[in-house]
Amino acid sequence: MFDEKDLLIDARHVTRRFPTNDGRLLTACDDINLKFYKGKTLGLVGESGCGKSTFMRFLVWLDYPTEGEIFFHGKDITKMKGAELHENRQHIQMVFQDPSTSFNPKMKIKEIVCEPLLNFNRIKPSEMDAKARELLELVELPGDFADRFPHNMSGGQRQRVAIARAIALEPEFIVMDEATSALDVSVQKTVIELITRLQREKNIAIGFICHDLGLIESFAHQVAVMYLGNIVEVMPGEGLSDVCCHPYSRALLASVFDTKMDFTKKIENIKGEPPSPLDLPPGCPFSNRCPHCTERCEHEKPKLVELTPGHEVACHLFTK
Ligand SMILES: Nc1ncnc2c1ncn2[C@@H]1O[C@H](COP(=O)(O)OP(=O)(O)OP(=O)(O)O)[C@@H](O)[C@H]1O
Predict the structure, then answer these.
(1) Can you give the residue ranges of the ABC transporter domain (predicted)?
(2) Is the dihedral of CA 231, 237, 241, 245 positive or negative?
(3) Does the pLDDT value for residue 268 go beyond 70?
(4) Which residues line the pocket of ligand 1, CB cutoff 6 A?
(5) Quick count: other Cβ atoms within 10 Å of Cβ 2?
(6) What are the tens digits of pLDDT across the range 284-300?
(7) For the chain, how many structural domains are there in total?
């Protein structure tokens, strides 16, 4: 579906297990394979605790997988150290959910947005004012905000500052972890419009973590649905509601506000609780909640199989 020459990040067989105090292992990510392409957004959706943040944190060196490899321009980022790691950090940036907790309240906006540029000696301190203004205007904020402090801005404005800071180094890839979830719906829409405009202009690849399949459908080029540490479906973002077929994706889609206001559709509620990641079932991770569960599902874990180009699903309903 995407041109393989535009492949930017290729995560292969990525697994993360956390040891617990009582000597057991919690599997937060289980054999994840995902590809990120230049200038495209991959939305990663799933319920709280399914492993979305754990996976995305590997891409910005905030954590390391227990097994697997993550290739960026053909080099495994999980093995990078020293000067190579320092150099590559410039190319991958992150925007967090709530910038008020990630900004130093004592720093002016110009110091916040220019800090990465100063750290990498890309500008001199004397160039900070002009650069901050340029970056703020790029995210549609007045240049005068450069002298403000973060607490003198709204949540939406602070998130624009976080985006300005993230794009300052002209990265090739940005991880956005619930970057619009703390904003009200109208502000969320304008921030998404900003992100998509910057992506088009600068050809940035984005990994966007989100709870809301309805929101992600509106702008992601591909969407991966995660359940209990596993990717259960990968599909194109456009027209997602028509093609998505994994029983968990369908339930997730039905449980979000129906943006098309199609009240004729049957709402499938997700029953029960996900099993503990400390005690994964031997078969399909969704088997105990799935209305279509068969004996095979309880014993045999389904693999992701391609249904059509760009659409993969891990469900025995779709495999022979
Ligand atoms: N450092 C850690 N030590 C032990 N367990 C962890 C650690 N980090 C995450 N986990 C566990 O890994 C699982 C996945 O967590 P993660 O934060 O990745 O989920 P998530 O899908 O991003 O959730 P949310 O949307 O709430 O942020 C959870 O069961 C969590 O408790």
Answers:
(1) 9-253
(2) negative
(3) no
(4) 18, 26, 28, 46, 48-54, 277
(5) 17
(6) 999 999 999 999 999 99
(7) 2
